[in-house]
Structure formats: C-alpha cells, structure tokens
Amino acid sequence: MLIDTHAHISYKDYSDRIDEVIQVAENNGVEKIISIGVDLPSSEECLKLAEKYPAVYATCGIHPHEADKAPKGYLYELEAFTQHPKVVAVGEMGLDYHYDFSDRKVQRRVYHEQLEMSKSLELPAVVHCRESDDDILEGIQNSGLNRGVIHCFASDVEFAENILETGFHISFTGMITFVKELENVVKEVPLERMMIETDSPYLSPKPYRGKQNEPKNVLHVAEKIAELKEISLEEVMESTTETALNLFNKIM
Ligand SMILES: [Zn+2]
Ligand SMILES: [Zn+2]
Predict the structure, then answer these.
(1) pTM
(2) Which of 38, 68, 107, 238 has its CA 20 to 30 A from that of 93?
(3) Ligand 2 centroid to 92 CA: how many Å?
(4) Contact status, residue 214 vs residue 198, Cβ threshold 8 Å
(5) What distance in angstroms lies between residue 67's CA and the mean position of ligand 2's atoms?
(6) What is the pLDDT at residue 113?
(7) Number of neighbours of residue 75 by Cβ within 10 angstroms
(8) Spans of the chain below 70 pLDDT
(9) Ligand at shortest distance from the CA of 197
(10) Superfamily assignment of 2-247 in CATH?
C-alpha cells in the first residue's frame, strides 16, 4: 500500500475526472490520498472530497501564497474544520521567498499562527518551504511543535538534519527523479523519517514530465528512493506508509 501524503486534488484541474483519478490511484496501490488545502475555500473543498471518498483525507490551512488574502478570523474557521474526523493536519502553511506572492511579514505571521494552532490542537503541521530555510526552522523551534513534515523537500542535507532534530519528517516529490542535487539528501535522510507525495497537479516525476501529475504517480517517487538507497521497493512502501500513518494518526 502507498499513501500520497500531499496532493491538491481539490483543484479545478481534476474536476471533470476526479472519480477516475481516485479510482486509478487505488487500482495502482495508492489506497490513501491526503488532499491539501491552501486557503479557506480549498480547505472546505478538501473536506467535501474526504466526505465523499473513503480513500481521501484532508488538511486545512493557509498557503504562504495566500497569506495576504487570509481573512481576519481565519484561525477560527480553520479550527472548526479541524474538528472533522477526516482532517488529519493543519496546512499547508509555510514561507515562500522564491515567488514572494505575499508580503514576507504577513507570511511569517500566518505561518507562526498556524504552527501555534497545530501545537494547541495536537495536530501535525504540513509545511511548505521555498528559499526560506532559516525562518522555517526558527518558526518550528520557537513553537515547540515536534510533529509535522517539510513537504516537497528541496534543500540540502544540513537543513534536512536540522529539521529532523525538531522531530519533523521530510517528504519527497517527483523532484527526486529529475533534480540531481536531491539524490544525496535522499541517501542521507533515514528511511524511517521520510514520506512520499506527488504534490499533484505539479511536479510530475519521470517518465511523466510535462504532463499533469496525479496521485497514482507516487509509486515513481518510491521507486527512486529504493534505487538511491539500494533497498527493495517493498521496504520503501512499507516504511513510508507506516511513517505517514503514525504522523497523521487521525487516518483510520
Ligand atoms: Zn507546497
Ligand atoms: Zn502543496
């Protein structure tokens, strides 16, 4: 069994074939999909998908790109969403200094507020980090939160080690199939601290570069980890699934 721990299947990209996308994933051994919210409307969409499809679970959060647009009182709405039995984490939250779609000060405030919410609700945090390593790490350390994941890991071994020290996990996307610099990170991070994801509809792994990504493709991330760590695919599937079930412990 595989779990796609990070997919944006609530996006319009899938609206005309969402049944098929989920069915094809299940047919390919991807038995659970975590549908990731990026603002209040998409978080609610994720919740609806989770209610409709047994394989789907949801997270609710404000992505750094959307931080500027977060309405006052957004935390109350997020907190209400998290009461749902299939909402397994807060996020995605974080800092993106590559695109800078939101003012950095606002990004930091909204990130810190959601970290605190994760801590107080005892839910893991799903964190997006792009060219913002120091501030991401400082936020986690200051919050005292020790349950979460840096999703779509795209940094170096030193940052990975610092993150692992906080108790957080690391999740890899299809990027590891086409970004050479990440191969060493995959080799260095202990298997039991890593998870896999597609980040659909983005980041299609080889051999699907240029096509819309979807949860079934998480298999190719697992295959690449097996290749780099020189272990069996079976071992990667078992370990990453167990890690995801332990972290996202509201998954039944
Ligand atoms: Zn992200
Ligand atoms: Zn995402």
Answers:
(1) 0.97
(2) 238
(3) 6
(4) yes
(5) 14
(6) 98
(7) 16
(8) none
(9) 2
(10) Metal-dependent hydrolases (3.20.20.140)
